[in-house]
Design goal:
Distance between the termini: 139 Å
CATH topology of the largest domain: Rossmann fold
CATH architecture of the largest domain: 3-Layer(aba) Sandwich
Number of domains: 7
Shape: elongated
Radius of gyration: 45 Å
Length: 886
């Protein structure tokens, strides 16, 4: 068929399609209830055709080109074919990278159909675990992630002449990494390799500059204006429920004279199923055939959504129809405004899809699907102000996903320092550090950044490095089949309905899930399961089994192991893959098991988990929720029981042996125990062991807080010793001084080897301090504690800071003395407090002789009147003092 006749056939098919449609309000009773798949040829003219010659010419001059064209311009189907027909691959293959499996398969089918060939001839596709290629295939559509695997198998891509990165504006991490690796290859071993980057909305200048940097020739940049008809946009506001909002929008379109197909954008398969159920009756009544379109459908059902149909179609699609797949005949778009975008579980690093609002650029692309061939309409299920507040573009995945897989690829290609790698857009430093730390913990790379033998084995599986480690560990422990099943479950959507409650108590959620999958496989029993995700998990498990090393595919040995032993081995393998996700169960709180997490933090075990009684477990799948009364909460959806001794056996480098010490205030002593901890979690505690040296440190802290006076029998004596030493130092330069700081220093020294206040008191702090200043008797000679008075009484000498030394005694005790006592070798007179018989001071003086001469006569008269029974001689210098009191 020539292009002209193909174009005519297309017009005839569209005309037939239009005549079979029933006007709004009625149903086409004569038409079939499902659409036949009819082989067609691509239309002869698409907007991109005008620049195909420019693209070919640019690549003949330069090894790189950037092609910018809006959705629906035909770049995905036409550009690769034009490159092939121009011979730019030089007899080698052309790889076309697609962001989604569905897009890779459907685009390959469409291009093959345009050639009148079956898939697997000139044109083929290859996605994870699935391919349709043959020895004659020269144009191969693949998902972005497969480029890395091809580079591992052949680092020079010797069988590839051109690589086309399609829909690069979606900025998936695999696309970013692929572009950087291809650029490095082109600058090295393959200068002849041609790179084409195609985008619908991304500014191509940045990509062109990146590919031109340091190159001999500048990267070409070709733009196709496309062809866009006006689209009338209405914002209907956010509905209470998305599926009911779709029905109301559909009814509005029909009531206002819908003439054509309707494309509805919904976040995922679950929302699509709900909307299909809600709209089924209305659609049937108005002659609309309902078609879902998402990646979980079988290929035949996906094809029905995009093929021409005699009836009007209501296509309920994920964002795959936003740019990757073009559907003819769309007259109106209903945009739910939501999508599930790639993210990663911050606890595991495993990729996930999170529900979120689309960007303004995505909203524009969705609306544009209604204006490809004629004026159209777009009804948005959100408000205008909501649209205006959304970001212009969705942030690139490199800023929001786990980088461990990409980093392992880089290390495998010999990049020891990923931070210095020539990224198209460098990832955040924190994300790089986290990814590197995880790879080291999993044993995938060594401290120098070299891939270990274990890391090479992990790369053999198209999985996140965690799950690659799970696969390797499962093989090593003799349970490869169970490991494949667990990896499939953890890499795909949950097979349980939302809100499902645990029906038993078991060792691991994945074990219960695997048992139910086996029932589904053997008997078709779908009870308690989501059929689509469950069958997908079975498919991935079977594909992983085929990816095992040949000597591990025979499961007879595994099945010969007792069931409990097999399950224990799988749980050990899961521990190797999730070593820092260990949790210790605490008490139950409000129906949830409270968990303490390794490394700090807390979580709750969700009601859907079957691990209800195990004290130790792994948090395999975690959800972060925000609750009004509790704030942010971490909920563990899938768990696995482990034994604490496994941590010691498998992860001994992470085990910390520490002595836990505490102060018993009542007993005034240090008490402690020997502890084994895993990332902060207590594994074992032994009391009664000999306390370590650190016990003295704790005693020292408590003793210094109590102060030195707590450890002497007479605190006043300690204060006196400090004052005496200060007095001596004031008169004898260089003499040692006992200060508060010195007392604390000696107290701290005495704590060494001791663990209680009682031991400290027995160590005689006062004696230790006295020994420091009493050497040679100088202290007692210069600053005595007592002086002998004439009557034989020993009077205590008082020393106080910033005061002269003094003593107090009865006035009569000084009879017989013409001069008061002196200290410091006779240099310093003591301040004398001369007391009356009642103990009150009659005079305070340092000049006893002057007192006798000037004041004593008057004092004597007064004392004689008050105390007539006491002797008050006229001449105190010669009088005998009274005997000391006993």
């Amino acid at each position: 068929m020539t292009p002209r006749t193909a174009h005519a056939a297309g017009r005839a098919a569209r005309k037939t399609h239009a005549t079979r449609r029933k006007p709004a309000g009625g149903r086409d009773r004569g038409g079939p209830l499902c659409c036949p798949v009819v082989a067609t040829r691509a239309p002869s003219q698409l907007p991109i055709d005008e620049v195909l010659g420019d693209i070919v010419a640019a690549l003949q001059r330069s090894p790189c080109a950037v092609v910018e064209a809006p959705p629906g311009a035909g770049k995905t189907t036409r550009v690769p074919l034009a490159l092939l027909q121009a011979g730019l691959a030089g007899g080698r293959e052309i790889l076309v990278l697609q962001p989604r499996r569905l897009a890779a398969r459907m685009t390959a089918a469409r291009v093959a159909e345009s050639l009148g060939e079956p898939l697997g001839a000139t044109v083929g596709y290859q996605v994870r675990f699935e391919s349709a290629v043959g020895p004659e295939t020269r144009l191969r559509f693949i998902t972005e992630g497969l480029l890395g695997r091809k580079l591992h198998a052949d680092p020079q891509l010797r069988d590839v002449g051109v690589v086309v990165l399609d829909e690069f504006h979606e900025r998936h991490i695999d696309g970013d990494l692929g572009l950087a690796l291809l650029r490095a290859l082109q600058r090295g071993a393959r200068p002849d390799l041609k790179i084409v980057v195609m985008s619908a909305t991304l500014d191509g200048a940045a990509v062109a500059a990146y590919l031109s940097e340091g190159a001999a020739t500048e990267c070409a940049r070709i733009t196709s204006a496309g062809r866009m008809f006006p689209v009338a946009i209405e914002h209907l506001g956010e509905p209470n429920e998305l599926h009911s909002g779709v029905l109301r929008a559909l009814a509005k379109l029909v009531d206002e004279g819908l003439d054509g197909d309707v494309l509805v954008f919904l976040p995922g398969a679950r929302e699509i199923a709900r909307a299909a159920e809600t709209c089924a009756g209305f659609a049937a009544h108005h002659g609309l055939q309902v078609f879902p379109l998402h990646g979980e459908l079988p290929p035949a059902e996906q094809d029905l959504a995009v093929r021409p149909c005699p009836q009007r179609k209501l296509i309920l699609s994920t964002n795959v129809a936003e740019t990757s797949v073009t559907i003819d005949g769309i007259a109106a778009v209903i945009d739910g405004g939501l999508a599930r975008v790639a993210a990663h579980d911050p606890w595991t690093g495993i990729p996930t899809l999170q529900l979120g609002k689309i960007s303004r650029a995505s909203a524009a692309q969705r609306a544009g699907r209604a204006g490809r061939t004629r004026p159209g309409r777009c009804l948005r299920l959100y408000a205008q102000h909501d649209h205006d507040r959304r970001p212009e573009h969705t942030p690139p995945e490199i800023h929001r996903v786990d980088l461990a897989g990409a980093l392992l690829d880089l290390h495998a290609f010999g990049v020891a320092e990923p931070a210095a790698f020539a990224w198209f857009e460098a990832p955040p430093a924190a994300a790089l550090q986290a990814g590197e730390a995880l790879l080291r913990r999993l044993g995938a790379i060594d401290p120098a950044g070299r891939v270990t033998p274990l890391g090479r084995r992990m790369l053999a599986f198209p999985l996140h490095p965690r799950l690659g480690r799970l696969m390797c560990e499962g093989v090593d422990r003799g349970v490869p089949g169970l490991a494949c099943g667990a990896a499939a479950l953890l890499s795909e959507r949950s097979i349980r309905p939302a809100g499902a409650l645990a029906s038993c108590d078991a060792d691991a959620d994945v074990l219960v899930d695997l048992a139910d999958l086996e029932k589904l496989r053997r008997r078709g029993d779908e009870r308690g399961l989501l059929p689509g995700p469950a069958r997908r998990a079975l498919q991935v498990r079977d594909q992983l089994l085929r990816a095992l090393p040949h000597d591990s595919r025979d499961r007879s040995k595994e099945l010969g192991i007792k069931e409990q032993e097999r399950e224990d081995r799988l749980r050990m393998a899961l521990l190797a893959a999730f070593p820092e996700r260990v949790a210790q169960a605490r008490e139950d709180v409000g129906g949830f098991r409270a968990l303490a997490l390794a490394g700090g933090g807390a979580a709750r075990l969700g009601p859907g988990s079957v691990v209800r009684t195990a004290p130790w477990l792994l948090a395999l799948e975690v959800e972060q929720r925000r609750e009004a009364d509790r704030g942010a909460q971490v909920l563990v959806r899938s768990a696995c029981a482990i034994e604490p001794e496994w941590l010691i056996d498998q992860l001994c480098d992470e085990i910390e042996e520490r002595d836990e010490l505490q102060w018993n205030a009542a007993r005034e002593r240090v008490e402690g125990a020997r502890e084994l901890r895993y990332m902060g979690l207590l594994l074992e505690r032994t009391t009664g062991a000999k306390l370590p040296p650190a016990a003295s440190e704790l005693l020292r802290t408590q003793a210094l807080a109590a102060g030195p006076e707590r450890f002497v029998g007479d605190p006043e004596a300690l204060r006196g010793l400090m004052a005496r030493s200060a007095f001596v130092a004031a008169h004898v330069p260089g003499a040692p001084v006992i200060t508060e700081a010195v007392a604390r220093e000696v107290l701290a020294e005495l704590c060494e080897g001791r663990t209680s206040f009682a031991e400290l008191r027995a160590a005689d702090l006062y004696g230790q301090l006295l020994a420091r200043v009493a050497g040679g008797g100088g202290l007692e000679r210069l600053a005595p504690t007592h002086v002998q008075l004439p009557g034989g009484r020993r009077a205590a000498v008082h020393y106080e800071p910033d005061k002269p030394p003094w003593l107090a005694s009865r006035l009569q005790d000084f009879f017989g003395m013409s001069r008061g006592p002196h200290i410091a070798g006779g240099k310093v007179p003591l301040v004398l407090h001369l007391l009356a018989p009642n103990g009150r001071a009659e005079q305070v003086t340092t000049d006893l002789a002057g007192f006798w001469d000037r004041h004593y006569p008057e004092v004597r008269k007064a004392l004689m009147r008050r105390y007539p029974r006491h002797s008050w001689p006229e001449d105190p210098r010669t009088a005998a003092p009274p005997a000391p009191r006993r």
